[in-house]
Specification:
The complex is a heterodimer of chains A (562) and B (210). With 562 residues, chain A is an alpha+beta fold. Helices cover 58% and strands 15% of the residues of chain A. The longest helix of chain A has 54 residues. Chain B folds into 2 domains: 133 residues, 3-Layer(aba) Sandwich (Rossmann fold); 62 residues, Arc Repressor Mutant, subunit A (Orthogonal Bundle), CATH 1.10.10. Classes of the chains: A alpha+beta (562), B alpha/beta (210).
Chain lengths: 562, 210
């Protein structure tokens, strides 16, 4: 076949379109790592086939050859609506769904192309064709289409409509960042699309000519502008999907029946051991151990909770956030829940380590404080003893009747200080406290009390009482607290402390003859009583405090020997 | 020393045995009389108002109100009353604040009867005697803050952090940005010479910064 061609007025606009398309393809290739680059390039290549073949068709003089080229153009034209839908769906983050429907979408275009090339056998596509050379601008090929052409057209227009509807209804149109690019994109597409639709309905600005093709230079310019100025391929709603796909936090989406409808790779790997067939299963079945908590969080709308999950045989702690989802556009109430799990295992471990350390610091500080207090008390007692000792010689000279009193006081003070010094050591080295006979330890307390207050303590104890570690400490602390309270609040002039044991119990009794208290009106600042109760409870010892106003107080602790 | 005027004293100490010993001691001097004794700062103020003594022997560490605050009140209201601090604590802070608040002298609770008698008479005469130990305490520089060298803002952040707040909450409370909070915490961790935030809290607790 001879290839002769002639210039016509379509050459310039169509060449401009081709150049623009090539430019856009180059831009698309440069940004090929963007997820939308692929559908964009697909779209542009369809367009390139369409326009290039149209140009060739118009300049080729041989009518038969131009018919073959026209048939070739349908390779691009039939795939064009699919490419448009592809682009829109990826743009809206629905590439997965697109891939699912793609085989079905391809049926009609494939059939169309088969019918085109086999038309001579059945005439389903085209019944006749001639060329109108009477126009001054360019030759117009006029085709008399068969029934399949209608199928092809309806299919193409439907896809285009669906894609546009998706774009218009998408929530992104409401977001300022995307609004401009979506509107420009729609305009660029709608310009040729409307002309195509008019042509199909038989309304043509240029008679018999499908002028939609002439709109492509304008559309191409618009799309180039969106790409260059609005970073079309860079700034995509799809970026959100990528974030979800790549983030370390676990994401689950449940429908309103609490069935899993989406899950990101992190959640799939860590919660479901990478299992694939989990979509559609109810969360109760997937995570039986955690489902109660999830239900509770959903029901109570408590936004943050901690949750423990067995992640490949290691217990991990997550912070769970559940928020209800409703459609951004349609207001149909709750459509499901979004669950986010953030791994806080490391933070938990660090916190635990920290609290442990802090606890140790606190215990150490408390011990040091007690030791310091005792030491201070030792100082006071020694100072008093020293004063009295200094006064002894003067007393012998001037106040002989005071000598015995001073001597006895000095004796008591020195006993007290020596007991206090022992207590300081016991406070600083608690192991020693555990190992010493309980009677000895409590005697130190009584001696120290006598020394620092001058109030006599009547002390009796059965020897060799050893309790279990915590119980020993508890008895000691209760006695200490009780004597402290007597000194602070009771104005007692006599104290009795009695430690006795039976076969399986130890009994500590501390009695004073002070002002006592009304058990129904315990003053708020008497933390000591509550402390004693808590201490006794912690080692399962029985504590009773009996008191009456002006009749003293009796405290009894009974613990079992284990 | 005139026979017709006795040195009148109020003793304020929460320790019963110290009370007892000092009143015994005063009993040996004809020209010194003990008007009353109290066991905390508030009682000291009341007793001074009631008795207008020449001198107060004031313990420092006491419940309800300590000697430091009581001294301030007493001197403000009755500048002619002489307050003599009596304490077993001889740290820089205690000594300095007592003297700053108007105490005329500072006696340690390890003095002999003679020393105490002397100091009382000297103080009554309007002079102050400081023992070498007390002089030493006064000269000591304050150390704790120099060791850590945290700024006021860093201390503030540290305290909020220790109270269990998150970066976000701290930022909100102090109306600064989260990155500023992080910056402060990095500095705190560095200045305390530790590696993690948790360690910083422990270190801060140990150094009594929080």
């Amino acid at each position: 076949m001879d290839f002769q061609w002639q210039y016509n007025h379509l050459v310039i606009p169509l060449s401009i379109s081709i150049v623009l398309i090539l430019l856009l393809i180059a831009l698309g290739i440069r940004q090929r790592h963007n997820p939308t680059a692929q559908p964009f390039l697909f779209f542009m290549i369809c367009l390139l086939i369409w326009i290039t073949t149209s140009l060739l068709e118009s300049i080729i003089l041989n009518f038969q050859l131009s018919l073959v080229v026209a048939d070739m153009s349908f390779l691009g034209i039939t795939l064009f609506p699919i490419a448009w839908l592809y682009l829109i769906m990826v743009y809206l983050g629905k590439s997965k769904q697109f891939r699912q429907i793609l085989p079905w979408l391809l049926i009609i275009p494939i059939l169309t192309n088969i019918f085109i090339w086999t038309n001579s056998f059945h005439g389903l596509w085209r019944e006749g064709a001639y060329r109108d050379l009477s126009t001054t601008f360019f030759p117009i090929s006029i085709y008399d289409y068969g029934p399949w052409f209608t199928v092809h057209s309806i299919f193409g227009f439907s896809l285009a409509f669906i894609a546009m509807a998706m774009l218009i209804r998408s929530p992104f149109l409401k977001m300022k960042v995307y609004r401009t690019q979506i509107i420009i994109l729609l305009t660029a597409f709608n310009l040729p699309f409307s002309l195509e639709l008019l042509h199909w309905m038989g309304v043509d600005p240029i008679q018999h000519y499908n002028s939609s093709i002439l709109a492509f230079p304008i559309s191409g310019l618009l799309v180039s502008w969106v790409m260059l100025h609005h970073n079309f391929l860079d700034l995509m709603p799809i970026a959100r999907d990528l974030v979800v796909e790549s983030m370390e936090d676990l994401m689950l989406v449940l429908d309103n029946q609490r069935r899993l409808i989406d899950v990101n790779p992190a959640a799939r790997a860590r919660l479901f051991q990478g299992k694939s067939a989990i979509i559609g299963t109810s969360i109760e079945d997937l995570l039986p151990d955690q489902s109660d908590l999830i239900k509770r969080v959903i029901a109570n709308n408590t936004p943050h909770q901690e949750i423990e999950v067995d992640d490949n045989n290691q217990l991990q702690v997550f912070e769970i956030t559940i928020s209800s989802i409703s459609h951004p556009v349609r207001d149909r109430g709750k459509e499901g829940w979004l669950i986010l799990l953030r791994d806080i295992t490391m933070r938990k471990q660090a916190e635990q380590a920290f609290y442990k350390q802090l606890q140790q610091v606190t215990i150490l500080e408390e011990r040091q404080r007690l030791a310091r207090e005792l030491h201070d008390s030792v100082n006071q007692t020694l100072f008093a003893a020293r004063m009295l000792a200094d006064l002894l010689p003067r007393a012998i000279e001037t106040k002989p009747d005071k000598v015995l009193e001073y001597a006895l006081n000095i004796q008591q003070l020195i006993h007290g200080t020596s007991a206090e010094m022992r207590l300081v050591l016991l406070e600083l080295y608690p192991d020693a406290l555990m190992e010493t006979d309980l009677g000895t330890v409590i005697k130190h307390l009584c001696d120290a009390y006598e020394g620092s207050t001058g109030t006599p303590v009547d002390f009796h104890a059965t020897s060799q009482i050893h309790l279990e570690k915590d119980a020993q400490l508890t008895f000691y602390r209760i006695a200490q607290e009780a004597l402290h309270n007597i000194n602070k609040h009771t104005e007692a002039t006599k104290v009795t402390v009695n430690l006795s044991k039976t076969e399986d119990t130890v009994k500590l009794l501390i009695q004073d003859n002070g002002i006592g208290f009304d058990p129904n009106h315990i003053p708020a600042d008497h933390f000591g009583l509550k402390n004693m109760e808590d201490r006794a409870k912690s080692v399962k010892a029985k504590l009773s405090i009996i008191s009456e106003l002006h009749c003293g107080t009796t405290i009894t602790v009974i613990g079992e020997i284990t | 020393m005139t026979q017709d005027h006795k040195i009148s004293i109020i003793l304020v100490d929460d320790h019963r045995r110290v009370h007892q010993a000092i009143s015994e001691m005063i009993g040996f001097f004809d020209d010194i009389e003990l008007l009353a004794h109290g066991s905390n700062g508030r009682e000291a103020i009341e007793l001074c108002n009631r008795y207008q003594p020449d001198l107060v022997l004031m313990d420092v560490v006491m419940p309800i109100m300590d000697g430091i605050e009581a001294t301030k009140h007493i001197i403000e209201k009755n500048p002619e009353i002489k307050v003599l601090a009596l304490s077993s604590f001889k740290d820089h802070h205690t000594v300095r604040t007592m003297l700053e608040n108007g105490a005329i002298g500072f006696v340690l609770k390890d003095s002999s009867v003679d020393d105490l008698e002397n100091t009382i008479r000297t103080a009554y005469a309007g002079q102050s005697i400081l023992s070498p130990e007390i002089m030493q305490a006064l000269l000591e520089t304050q150390q704790s803050n120099q060791e850590t060298n945290l700024s006021a803002r860093e201390l503030e952040v540290l305290k909020l952090f220790a109270s269990g707040m998150t970066n976000n909450q701290i930022a909100h409370t102090l109306t600064i940005s989260i990155s500023t909070v992080k910056f402060h915490i990095t500095n705190i961790v560095e200045k305390l010479g530790v590696n993690t935030r948790a360690e910083a809290l422990v270190a801060a607790a140990k150094n009594k910064l929080i």
